From TrEMBL:
GO cellular component: plasma membrane
InterPro entries according to UniProt: Uncharacterised_IM_CreD (IPR010364)
Name of the protein this chain belongs to: Cell envelope integrity protein CreD
Keywords, alphabetical: Membrane, Transmembrane, Transmembrane helix
Pfam families: CreD
Transmembrane segments: 21-38, 343-362, 369-388, 394-412, 424-441, 447-465
Length: 474
């Protein structure tokens, strides 16, 4: 009696359409587990790539952000305090003197930058590094202390200096000297003995929403000149300045437009720039970017930005106003591979659907183990893809991986289906499916539109071929 029940159950599993549908759905869900591990593998390899690139950049020089030159003038600030004698209860006023700094930005600032970039490799990973030669010119005008009510006799003119803030001091490759009128002054990094590091303005800690162009905390370290001679201070007439700044950096270079009028002209041999910031370039993008490099020009007026020309007490963090260029490696293979794995569920489901329709229409029996082998072959596509992209282009890896899986499943189908017609159909269907996904990956802007149209066509095809199936049978 027990044997008879088992035979009936086995017969139902073998011949029931409903049972086969449940079995295929269960196997599809099971195969999501290896797909999940493939996605984790891609993320792990991507993080490894980021670590190696950071190591390259640390040795060569990190991303460059420049913020200067700035005229720094100390002044006396008087603070009145009230002290109460606890014995007598009498209150007396005392005046304390503090030395504070005022910071004045240039009236105009012109920057010419020549950026020579190259792809630097370590193992199988590549980072973009560069050497930049920059010429700064402009002028300082008479500092305005009246907005803070500071008297002329409280200004310490003899201790005026010029400062330059940079995110990458270790990448500097020349002795930086600024020429004010006819007098030259050397810059040196300033060390604050009360802390464990360089003097800094506020550190821009990583906040992707506020600083989407920077991948980590940006700490500005500053260079400062010696005390300026009286002839180099713009007390009565403007003082012109100029200096050269040569620096090694990686991935990107940017500036903060502190001039009342800021003009930046940049040329580079890198063929894949990505411009960022809130200020439009003057160049036409198609004309300024070629396979041999790019040119970029910006002109920013004070009215275009939202900060003043002078600050008292401390310098603010103006990183959100930075603009510049990222020297990107054109293709991120890991990102493409990760996007491809997101279509894994669809590939497995549609492939199983094809075998299900063939099994139902032709009455050929396909064992659940054979479905499992086909599903595992489909997941192997993604491990092949990620391993091959580390040593070749995404296109080459995709063609090899897709071709290998299509041939494997087609030959396996021949042994299951016992003819050439169905395996040929399966091979063509898988080729079309992988081709469809490849097109979607390439068309980032139209991926949703093309994907929706493609799925609609697939659904229509399935509805057409399944219209004659008797779904009441089983």
């Amino acid at each position: 009696m027990e044997t008879q029940k088992n035979n009936r159950f086995g017969h139902w599993i073998k011949n029931s359409i409903t049972a086969r549908m449940f079995m295929i759905g269960f196997l599809t869900l099971i195969l999501l587990i290896p797909l999940f591990y493939v996605e984790s593998l891609i993320k792990e390899r991507s993080h490894r790539k980021a670590d190696v690139i950071n190591e390259i950049n640390e040795k060569w020089g990190n991303e460059v952000v420049l913020y200067g030159p700035i005229l720094k003038i100390p002044y006396r600030h008087y603070k009145e305090t009230v002290k109460v004698d606890q014995k007598t209860g009498l209150a007396t006023k005392e005046q304390q003197v503090e030395i504070r700094e005022a910071y004045f930005f240039p009236e105009n600032l012109t920057i010419k930058a020549d950026v020579k970039a190259e792809a630097k490799k370590r193992s199988i990973y590549t980072s973009t590094v560069f050497h930049s030669k920059m010429d700064f010119k402009g002028e300082f005008t008479l500092p305005d202390f009246t907005s803070e009510g500071i008297k002329n006799e409280d200004i310490i003119w003899e201790k005026a200096t010029v400062v330059i803030n940079s995110s990458n001091l270790k990448g500097i490759r020349n002795q930086v000297k600024i020429k004010l009128n006819d007098k030259a002054y050397s810059f040196v990094p300033k060390y604050n003995k009360s802390t464990t590091g360089y003097n800094t303005i506020e550190t821009a800690y990583y906040d992707y929403n506020k600083y989407p162009n920077y991948g980590k905390a940006i700490k500005f370290q500053y260079l400062e000149s010696g005390f300026l001679d009286e002839s180099s201070i713009p007390k009565e007439v403007p003082v012109k300045f100029e200096f050269n700044f040569n620096v090694n950096g990686s991935e990107q270079i940017s500036f903060i437009p502190i001039g009342k009028e800021t003009r930046v002209s940049m040329t580079s041999n890198w063929h894949s720039p990505s411009f960022f910031g809130n200020f439009l370039r003057l160049n036409n993008e198609k004309e300024s970017i070629t396979k041999d490099g790019f040119t970029a020009d910006w002109e920013i007026l004070q009215i275009n930005r939202q900060f003043e020309q002078e600050f008292f007490g401390s310098l603010p963090n103006l990183l959100e106003f930075a603009f510049g260029v990222k020297l990107i490696v054109p293709v991120d293979e890991y990102q493409k591979s990760e996007r491809t794995t997101k279509y894994g569920f669809m590939v497995i489901s549609l492939t199983f659907l094809i075998f299900f329709l063939i099994q139902t229409l032709s009455k050929i029996n396909i064992h659940p183990f054979q479905y499992l082998m086909i599903g595992l072959a489909l997941t192997m596509f993604y491990t092949l893809l990620i391993s091959l992209t580390e040593h070749s282009s995404y296109l080459t890896a995709y063609l090899i991986s897709g071709g290998a899986v299509v041939i494997l499943i087609s030959l396996y189908s021949k042994s299951i289906l016992k003819n050439y017609k169905f395996p040929l159909f399966i091979g063509l269907s898988l080729t079309a499916l992988y081709g469809f996904i490849f097109v979607i990956i390439q068309l980032e802007n139209y991926a949703l539109l093309v994907g929706s149209i493609g799925l609609f066509i697939i659904l229509s095809t399935v509805m057409f071929f399944s219209r004659k199936i008797d779904w009441n049978n089983g």
